[in-house]
Amino acid sequence: MTTYDKVIALLDTHQARYRVVEHEALGQTEAISALRGNALHQAAKAMVLEVAMPEGAAPRFLLAIVPGDCKINFKSAARAIGGRKSGFAAPEQAQALTQCVMGAVPPFSFDDRLALCVDARLSEVGTLWFNAGALDRSVALDVNDYFRIVGDACQADIATPVTAAA
């Protein structure tokens, strides 16, 4: 079963309100948002982080979801799961944990080794847009259904708005 199939099965199981949009294969948040016609703050950017835990503990992996108009706050993301600091996971590790190419990672974790943390700003977007395990397919999902599926406990302030250059 592909990641796309897993996403659709999960949404159907929870009777979520969503629609699938097929489009050109793009993995850049700004470009795909323009193509889909959604506001940048509605786009869910997914990043796999490696989190350094307190002394003696093995590192953990985190699927961090932030709005398209924000950047990840690595320290806040690490603290959200009890870690000290974080950085991007190696591309091979990220792909192994998500079963997706980067740019196509949905805002759901299907691997027990990959904790999920979602920036709280996304709870206010109305419709959440994301690539659904494939670069050429996106999902527009009612944000209330998203948080009903993943739970509110995964919310944290893990992003920083990107300010436009003057």
From TrEMBL:
What are the coiled-coil residue ranges? none
| Gene Ontology MF terms | aminoacyl-tRNA deacylase activity
SUPFAM superfamilies in the cross-refs: YbaK/ProRS associated domain
Q: Which residues form the YbaK/aminoacyl-tRNA synthetase-associated domain?
A: 23-148
Name the domain of life: Bacteria
- Provide the protein name: YbaK/prolyl-tRNA synthetase associated domain-containing protein
